[in-house]
Write a structure and sequence with these properties.
- The protein has about 260 residues and is an alpha/beta fold.
- It has one domain: Glycerol-3-phosphate (1)-acyltransferase, CATH 3.40.1130.
- It is about 40% helix and about 15% strand.
- It is built from 10 helices and 7 strands.
- Strands 1-7-6-2-5-3-4 form a 7-stranded mixed sheet, with helices on both faces.
- Helix 2 crosses helix 3 and helix 2 runs parallel beside helix 6.
- The longest helix is centred in the first third of the chain and has 21 residues.
- About 40% of the residues are buried.
Length: about 260
C-alpha cells in the first residue's frame, strides 16, 4: 500500500526568503566544497573508497537545511543488506542532486549525465569519486557506461543510483521509463530498489532558481528480485516497476497512465 503523504508544518507552497538570503553561500558551498573533495579524493585513495560518504551527505543536507527543506527518509535500512543493487529514483528537479547526496547509501555509484562534467568543482568531484558519466547522445558510449556500472555492482557490491526516466520531468509527474537500468538488472540478476521522492517538485519546480521551504519525503521500497528476467520481457517488467511508482506519484502529461 502507498505510504502516507509527507507532512510538514510549512504550507504546501513554502517561502523562498531563506533560499534568497543564502543563495550565494549555497553556490559557494556547492562548488567550493566539491572542488576540495576532488583534490582530497585524488591525494587520499581511502577517501575515495568510502571515506567521502559522511562529507557527501553533509554536502547535500546543509543547502537543504539553509533553504528550510526538511527530509523525511523511510526504508533506508533496505540499502544496508550485503550485496549490490540498482536504486531507481524519480527525477523531478535540480534539487535532486542535494537530496541524493543527503541520502547516499554505503558504497554508492551514481550514473550522471555527461553535461555535469563541465560544472566547475562538481564535475571534477564526480570524476575523482569514481561516479560514471553517461553520454546520452552516443548510444555506444552509454552502453559502455552501463557495462561499467554492472561491473561495479557485481565486483564491489555497489549501490548504483539511476534515474529510469532519463531526465527531469519538465511538465511534472512521472515520465515513461527508459529500459537501460532494466536490461542491466536482467543481464546480471541485480535487484532493484525503488526510491520514491515526493515534495521535490513543490520545493523547486522546473525552471525555478530559488528553493521553497517544505518537506521532501523519501521512501525506499522493498527490493525487486530480477533473477529469471530475460531481455524479451524487460519492457513489461519496466512497466510493472513504473506502476509501483505510480502508486505514489502522478503520471506526467502525455505519458502512460495519464488521464
Amino acid at each position: 500500500m502507498p505510504s502516507p503523504q509527507p507532512t510538514s508544518s510549512a504550507p504546501e507552497r513554502g517561502s523562498v526568503w531563506r533560499s534568497l538570503l543564502f543563495f550565494l553561500p549555497i553556490v559557494l558551498w556547492t562548488l567550493g566544497t566539491a572542488g576540495a573533495v576532488a583534490i582530497v579524493a585524488v591525494l587520499w585513495p581511502r577517501f575515495r573508497r568510502g571515506g567521502f560518504l559522511p562529507w557527501a551527505r553533509l554536502w547535500g543536507r546543509l543547502p537543504l537545511a539553509l533553504c528550510g527543506v526538511r527530509l523525511e527518509v523511510h526504508g533506508a535500512e533496505r540499502l544496508e543488506a550485503p550485496g549490490g543493487r540498482i536504486v531507481l529514483f524519480n527525477h523531478a528537479s535540480l534539487l535532486d542532486i542535494y537530496v541524493l547526496a543527503a541520502t547516499l547509501p554505503r558504497n554508492p555509484v551514481v550514473l550522471y549525465k555527461k553535461e555535469f562534467s563541465r560544472v566547475p568543482g562538481l564535475g571534477p568531484a564526480l570524476r575523482s569519486l569514481g561516479m560514471i558519466p553517461v553520454d546520452r547522445s552516443d548510444h555506444q558510449a552509454a552502453v559502455r557506461s552501463l557495462a561499467e556500472a554492472g561491473r561495479r555492482i557485481r565486483d564491489e557490491q555497489a549501490n548504483c543510483l539511476m534515474a529510469p526516466e532519463g531526465t527531469r520531468s519538465r511538465l511534472g509527474g512521472l515520465q515513461n521509463f527508459k529500459l537501460g537500468a532494466f536490461h542491466l538488472a536482467a543481464e546480471h540478476g541485480i535487484p532493484l530498489v525503488p526510491m520514491i521522492a515526493r515534495g521535490v517538485e513543490r520545493a523547486m519546480p522546473m525552471g525555478a532558481l530559488l528553493v521553497r521551504s517544505g518537506t521532501v519525503r523519501i521512501d525506499f521500497l522493498e527490493p525487486i528480485t530480477t533473477t529469471g528476467w530475460t531481455k524479451d520481457d524487460v519492457r513489461e517488467h519496466a512497466r510493472d516497476v513504473r506502476r509501483q511508482f505510480l502508486e505514489y506519484l502522478d503520471p506526467a502529461p502525455g505519458c502512460e497512465g495519464a488521464a
